[in-house]
């Protein structure tokens, strides 16, 4: 089996590590993003809520008391997080914010809905701008912030030096960019030549510009799809 580098924020990295270890892989964790909650004003009662990540649920939706509030979630995993908090009116959309837009437009136009997106400070795709351009009332409410972690532990550096890591996983364009920047700051972009990069989507893969041994992405942007590719991505 492979030794896999996980770059996700620590809470999510631990969940991913548990799954990979159950599959027989070895895991090295190197979070390049730290997630922190911020204070925010709760959306008005007449607004349907959009959540596009577990962080939006854990740091935003958790503060809403009305469990019958309509919630539109990107992907089943995000929807499960919402349901675990007791929300009963959860509509599940496809796996990306961009793919959720047609559903939001249809419901917004036919049912005269107003939307609030519970999001972070860094948006790779501004879903509310798209909805507003179509004439809908939509607003972003920032519920958490993400900060870059500008360093790798000594253990991670040693593993990279020794060629002990086979695959690096990337779940967001920002994490891909930060990792390459950190490696460059160490003056060790050569580490990438012995690594396979496995990305959640083509958008994530497009943000990797370094001299990777190989670069692959899941056709369907889910962790399950990524894991199914680990055999193909494994070094020979």
Description:
The protein is α/β, with parallel strands linked by helices and 236 residues long. The chain has ten helices and eleven strands. It has helices spanning 10-22, 54-59, 75-84, 97-111, 127-133, 154-161, 173-185, 202-205, 223-228, 230-233; strands at 3-6, 26-29, 33-37, 47-51, 71-74, 90-93, 114-120, 137-148, 167-170, 196-199, 214-217. The protein has a six-stranded mixed beta sheet. Strands 2-1-9-10-11 form a five-stranded parallel beta sheet. The radius of gyration is 19 Å and the shape is elongated.
From the structure above, extract its key features:
single chain; 236 residues; alpha/beta; Rossmann fold; 2 domains; five-stranded parallel beta sheet; 10 helices; 36% helix; elongated
Spans of at least 5 consecutive residues whose pLDDT stays below 50 are none
Helical residues, percent: 25-40%
Mean pLDDT: 94
Task: Write down how many β-strands occur, each being a DSSP E stretch of 2 or more residues.
Answer: 11
Strand content: 15-25%
Might you state the CATH topology name of the largest domain?
Answer: Rossmann fold
In total, how many domains does the architecture comprise? Answer: 2
Could you describe the largest sheet, including whether it forms a barrel? 6 strands, mixed
The CATH architecture of the largest domain comes to 3-Layer(aba) Sandwich
Distance between the amino and carboxyl termini? 11 Å
- The topology string of helices and strands comes to EHEEEHEHEHEHEHEHEHEHH
Instruction: Describe the global form.
Output: elongated
Pairing-aware structural class of the strands and helices? alpha/beta
Count of DSSP H/I helices: 10
CATH class of the largest domain: Alpha Beta
Arrangement of strands in the largest sheet: 3-8-7-4-5-6
From the alpha-carbon coordinates, what is the Rg to the nearest angstrom? 19 Å
């Amino acid at each position: 089996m492979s030794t896999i580098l996980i770059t996700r924020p620590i809470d999510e990295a631990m969940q991913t590590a548990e799954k990979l270890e159950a599959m027989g892989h070895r895991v090295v964790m190197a979070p390049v993003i730290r997630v922190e909650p911020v204070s925010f004003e709760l959306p008005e009662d007449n607004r349907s809520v959009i959540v596009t990540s577990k962080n939006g649920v854990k740091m935003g939706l958790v503060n809403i008391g009305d469990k019958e509030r309509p919630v539109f979630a990107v992907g089943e995993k995000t929807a499960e997080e919402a349901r675990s908090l007791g929300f009963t009116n959860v509509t599940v959309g496809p796996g990306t914010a961009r793919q959720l837009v047609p559903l939001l437009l249809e419901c917004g136009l036919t049912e005269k809905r107003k939307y609030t997106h519970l999001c972070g400070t860094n948006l790779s795709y501004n879903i509310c701008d798209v909805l507003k351009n179509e004439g809908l009332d939509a607003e972003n409410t920032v519920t958490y912030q993400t900060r870059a972690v500008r360093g790798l532990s000594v253990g991670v550096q040693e593993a990279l030096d020794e060629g002990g890591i086979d695959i690096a996983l990337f779940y967001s364009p920002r994490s891909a960019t930060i990792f390459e920047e950190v490696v460059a700051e160490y003056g060790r972009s050569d580490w990438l030549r012995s690594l396979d990069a496995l990305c959640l989507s083509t958008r994530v893969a497009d943000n990797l510009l370094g001299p990777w041994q190989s670069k692959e992405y899941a056709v369907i942007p889910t962790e399950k799809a990524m894991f199914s590719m680990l055999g193909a991505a494994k070094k020979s």
